[in-house]
């Protein structure tokens, strides 16, 4: 018997691309055929988007799977590709970054200015003894210097490890230790929720525990008082005084570019290693294809933090390699008011917006009238990343932000994949609300059963990637064994057809009747109710489709009769009354609503109305903690949890039955 996921929901709404956009699209339907005919030739063509100092001899070396080498023998410099070549091509005056500080201060940085800053920073890093191959930790707020620091590392061949600027001393020091970093680049602080929020004290404590750190480079952002040690150097006294002349040296295509730890949604974060040529090829191609970027006219804005892979691939390397003009915002979406995002879109005439379902659902909760007050007519492509987007959240995004005009690209990918793997193409795909649709050209994604057999349309199972891709992770830093165990042993060599190596993504998915892909949440989160595998995502989306619900998270809790029973945690929309009887009534109504939408098998045993859900720092729901609550266990690893008070609130409610 092979395991499959029950397929409970169906969606008939479909939105073809706007005609004008389709006619002028960067990538047309032919790209799929081109890639299918010769995948390696397709990727070689995409690699030609970049400027190589030495051309590669071989596109892919897969002789030692699953350790891939792409563009073997090729050499290039990433920073040259992201900055210098645009200046050399006469586009030095083009704006690279419109930066918006949370308090309202702004900076406009052209490509010529970016080149100066990156060159100065590269010279400073070299003076501080950083050489190619050394590791540098970056712990920064969302200020332009964060991108400059990353590019300066790439320029001199140092491997960066960006640690989200909200993480604790422990999270930072374990990441410094794991990578054996020599330098930390940080700031005194950054602005969050209207106040300066200090970073330096965390760094001081982490550095005290990290003998490998020789120097700490500190950007002055907030001007708050900081302790000073003999390892500390001010950015403005070093970088800003350094020579702006720096000759970028080429590095091997497989030179390590960065280590980045996964979000920790399912457990202990993994230090994912990405390298140079294949990574840049793929993020450059996908940024151009998925967002239909027209560098001369578009203003692009990705709201992610630079501490996540989305910030790496779609704020720094993808957009800058394509010569984009982009917005970078320092702060939170509700400071000074809940309209900040729409104010920014209106102010900079943002044409491409890339954000996360957690934010879209928050905006839904805050109410339609907030975006309605702004001119959002500049928007022409909307993107989503990070979690499955519920169909109702997708529709809300389309109607209230896209004003029923703009395509939505729901992009599925992971820290490990480096770039987007599954997504509509905005000028080609007729989209369905809630579906990531189809693998991009050059990618072979599939849904398989536990025997690695492809499931038919209408079936569900495990999401896998069948062929290596240029921006794939090369290993888990310092832990090849965990790399093999986590991604390659589930369907190890010999599974599928012969000697195929199949990448196990850890996510559940289904194919609908047309073969479009629907992401169904983590495989670890799939619930087994009376012999049926039921996805968390489908039950959550059914709940979110009720007009009183803003967000929902469901888990399977051990149950004596059904094996597991569905327990749902629900955040009501702002205007909904949940006091006393009204709350009880809503509870009954929601359980019946799910039963009606998906069938009685999916009816939650219990629904808890809660004010918040536990999320990672990147905004993803941490179901494993809710499961601990639902099963009355003590909580597992909470180091990547955004707000620990949330769990107390939820646990208390669980005990009192409220
Ligand atoms: P960890 O691996 O440590 O648990 P994580 O998986 O949350 O952390 P990331 O690499 O940031 O770390 O997230 C990738 C995951 O996010 C995917 O595996 C998937 O579960 C989810 N995801 C990202 N984009 C989408 C999307 N468009 N649709 C559905 N799920 C998505
Ligand atoms: Mg993961």
* DSSP E strands, number: 30
Quickly give the structural class.
alpha/beta
What distance separates the N and C termini?
A: 40 Å
Oligomer description: single chain
**Separate helix tally:** 20
Low-confidence stretches: none
Fraction of helical residues: 25-40%
Unique bound compounds = adenosine-5'-triphosphate, magnesium ion
The biggest beta sheet is recorded as: 8 strands, mixed
Q: Work out the strand percent.
A: 15-25%
Principal-axes geometry comes out as globular
Rg of Cα set: 24 Å
The overall pLDDT average reads 94
Structure in words:
Residues 31-82 form the Acetyl-coenzyme A synthetase N-terminal domain. With 658 residues, the chain is of the alpha/beta class. The protein is built from 20 helices and 30 strands. The protein has an eight-stranded mixed beta sheet, with helices on both faces. A seven-stranded mixed beta sheet has the order 5-4-17-16-18-19-20, with helices on both faces. α13 (357-366) crosses α15 (391-401). The mean pLDDT is 94. Magnesium ion is lined by residues 262, 414, 506.
């Amino acid at each position: 018997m092979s395991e499959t996921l029950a397929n409970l929901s169906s969606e008939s709404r479909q939105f073809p691309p706007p005609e004008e956009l389709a006619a002028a699209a960067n990538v047309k339907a032919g790209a799929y055929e081109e890639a299918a005919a010769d995948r390696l030739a397709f990727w070689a063509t995409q690699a030609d988007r970049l400027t190589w100092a030495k051309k590669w001899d071989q596109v892919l070396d897969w002789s030692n799977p699953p350790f891939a080498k792409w563009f073997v023998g090729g050499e290039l410099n990433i920073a040259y590709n992201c900055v210098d070549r645009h200046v050399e091509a006469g586009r030095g005056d083009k704006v690279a970054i419109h930066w918006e500080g949370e308090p309202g201060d702004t900076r406009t940085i052209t490509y010529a200015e970016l080149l100066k800053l990156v060159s100065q920073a590269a010279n400073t890093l070299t003076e501080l003894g950083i050489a190619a191959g050394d590791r540098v930790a970056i712990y920064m707020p969302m200020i332009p210097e964060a991108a400059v620091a990353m590019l300066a590392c790439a320029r001199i061949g140092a491997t960066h490890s960006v640690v989200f600027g909200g993480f604790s001393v422990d999270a930072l020091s374990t990441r410094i230790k794991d990578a054996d970093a020599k330098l930390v680049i940080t700031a005194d602080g950054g602005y969050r929720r209207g106040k300066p929020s200090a970073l330096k004290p965390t760094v001081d404590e982490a550095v005290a525990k990290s003998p490998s750190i020789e120097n700490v480079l500190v950007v002055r952002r907030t001007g708050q008082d900081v302790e000073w040690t003999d390892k500390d150097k001010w950015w403005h006294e070093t970088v800003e005084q350094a020579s702006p002349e720096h000759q970028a040296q080429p590095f091997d295509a497989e030179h390590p570019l960065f280590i980045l730890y996964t979000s920790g949604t399912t457990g202990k974060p993994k230090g994912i290693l990405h390298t140079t040529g294949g990574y840049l090829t793929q993020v450059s191609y996908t940024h151009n294809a998925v967002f239909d970027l027209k560098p001369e006219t578009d203003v692009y804005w990705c709201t992610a933090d630079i501490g996540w892979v989305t910030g790496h691939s779609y704020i720094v390397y993808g957009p800058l390699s394509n010569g984009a003009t982009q917005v970078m915002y320092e702060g939170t979406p509700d400071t000074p008011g809940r309209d900040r995002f729409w104010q920014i879109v209106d102010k900079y005439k943002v044409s491409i917006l890339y954000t996360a379902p957690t934010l879209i659902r928050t905006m839904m909760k805050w109410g339609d009238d907030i975006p309605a007050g702004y001119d959002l007519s500049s928007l022409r492509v909307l993107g989503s990343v990070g979690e499955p987007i519920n169909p109702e959240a997708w529709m809300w995004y389309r109607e209230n932000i896209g004003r029923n005009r703009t395509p939505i690209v729901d992009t599925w990918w992971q820290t490990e994949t480096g770039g987007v793997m599954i997504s509509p193409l905005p000028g080609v795909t007729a989209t369905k609300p809630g579906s990531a649709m189809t693998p991009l050209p050059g990618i072979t994604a599939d849904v398989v059963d536990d025997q690695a057999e492809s499931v038919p349309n209408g079936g569900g199972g495990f999401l896998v990637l069948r062929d290596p891709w240029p921006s794939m992770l090369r290993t888990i830093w310092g832990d090849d064994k965990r790399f093999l165990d986590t991604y390659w042993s589930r369907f190890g060599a010999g599974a599928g057809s012969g000697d195929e190596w199949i990448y196990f993504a850890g996510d559940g998915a289904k194919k609908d009747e047309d073969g479009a892909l629907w992401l169904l949440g983590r495989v670890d989160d799939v619930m087994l109710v009376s012999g049926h595998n039921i996805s968390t995502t489908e039950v959550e989306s059914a709940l979110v489709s009720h007009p009183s619900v803003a967000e929902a998270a469901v888990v399977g809790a051990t149950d004596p009769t059904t094996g597991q029973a569905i327990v749902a945690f629900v955040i009501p929309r702002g205007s909904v009354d949940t006091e006393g009887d009204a709350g009880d009534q809503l509870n009954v109504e929601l359980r019946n609503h799910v039963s009606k939408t998906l069938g009685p098998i999916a009816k939650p045993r219990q629904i808890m109305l809660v004010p918040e859900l536990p999320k990672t720092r990147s905004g993803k729901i941490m179901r494993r903690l809710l499961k601990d609550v639902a099963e009355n266990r003590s909580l597992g690893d909470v180091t990547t949890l955004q707000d620990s008070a949330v769990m107390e609130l939820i646990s208390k409610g669980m005990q009192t039955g409220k």
